[in-house]
Amino acid sequence: MNRIRRIAETIQEKQNITLEELRKLLETEDAEGMEELFAAARKTAQSIYGNRIYIRGLIEFSNYCKNDCYYCGIRRSNENAQRYRLTKEQIVSCCREGYALGFRTFVLQSGEDLYFTDDRICEIVSEIRNRFPDCAITLSLGEKEKESYRKYFEAGADRYLLRHETADEAHYRKLHPPELSLKHRLQCLWDLKEIGYQTGCGFMVGSPGQTIETLYEDLQLIRELQPHMVGIGPFIPQHDTPFAKEKAGTLERTLRLLAIIRLMHPHVLLPATTALGTIHPMGREKGILAGANVVMPNLSPVSVRKKYELYDNKICTGDEAAECRFCLQKKIEKIGFRIDVSRGDYPE
Ligand code: 5AD
Ligand code: FES
Asked: In the chain, at which residue ranges do the beta strands (DSSP E only) sit?
């Protein structure tokens, strides 16, 4: 049997990976072996989810951020970012449009914007909860106190996305200014799980300073945390950040990691991200063929899309929500999958 195929099977059996196996999978030039890796991951996803790909409507409601992460286009020091905030009415109106298009999960994402106090967040969450009782509400607002997370949960939020970015201390310090710490970020993730959120962590592929060793730590962290969702996508430089001149992560490495994560965590909700679609026109389709089972098209008003520029050349910034919805449906059907318009909760 092919060497790569054997490694894929071992990962699946042990639901674990060794550093050497990871190195082999990330460094091999065996193209046929890679097809087998992707096929194994795809089969694993299909054994649980069939041909269904879940869709989530992403609403980027504020690009103000008090943080200064070196990789991110909406970092506070970026004076060229045109800042905006949506009102509660605008957010609800995005949901209404999304609901009509079949979305049953809304992902509310923003920078760490101090304007949105706990009371304001809870007000928005309650409003969406009351108006759309059959929808899941996912928050992605960064690091907060446990009490705040609890309030949002009680107001009706179901899920929370907080990428850990890297599980390696030294690498974390390369990506973030000193006031941010890996320790606090991980504490947030454990708090979220304990409160009862379906929780998502994740990282960028190819961020400056990332190595096979740090990726191995990421995989071990995911194994320990057992999140319900894992968001990964390539790092893409943004021209107004300290990492403007760094190299982007690659399509190939992102696909390999998606497949590995699928094999280690058969049930996990794994998006084919917009960043993946940005580095290659078929990126999201290839992601699905490597084991991803979620897509998150944008529901933000077109007038603000371009301003939520975490990285350069982000796709779909000129398209209406409906255009993205149907464009993605076409792409997904072309590769033999179909969109599922249910809430798409983590299977218990
Ligand atoms: N390239 C790719 N992804 C990025 N993110 C932030 N900046 C970039 C970038 N330059 C990701 C981070 C963050 C998520 C919302 O977007 O992982 O958690
Ligand atoms: Fe937005 Fe294709 S998904 S235009």
From this structure: 52-55, 57-62, 105-110, 136-140, 159-161, 198-205, 229-234, 294-295, 338-340
Give which of 104, 177, 172, 182 is closest to 143, Cα–Cα. 182
Cα 186 from Cα 253, distance rounded (Å):
25
Question: What is the rounded end-to-end Cα distance, in angstroms, of the chain?
Answer: 34
Contacts of 251 (CB under 8 A, 6+ apart): 234, 276, 279, 280, 283, 286
Fold that domain 37-340 belongs to in CATH: TIM Barrel (3.20.20)
Give this prediction's pTM. Answer: 0.98
Calculate how far, in angstroms, residue 246's C-alpha sits from the geometric centre of ligand 1: 14
| Backbone angles phi and psi of 330, in degrees to 5 | -60, -45
Residues with beta carbon inside 6 Å of ligand 1?
Answer: 71-72, 163, 165, 204, 233, 235-236, 238, 275, 310-311
Query: For residue range 119-155, what is the model confidence (pLDDT) as tens digits?
Result: 999 999 999 999 999 999 999 999 999 999 999 999 9
Query: Do 73 and 240 form a contact (C-beta atoms < 8 A)?
Result: yes
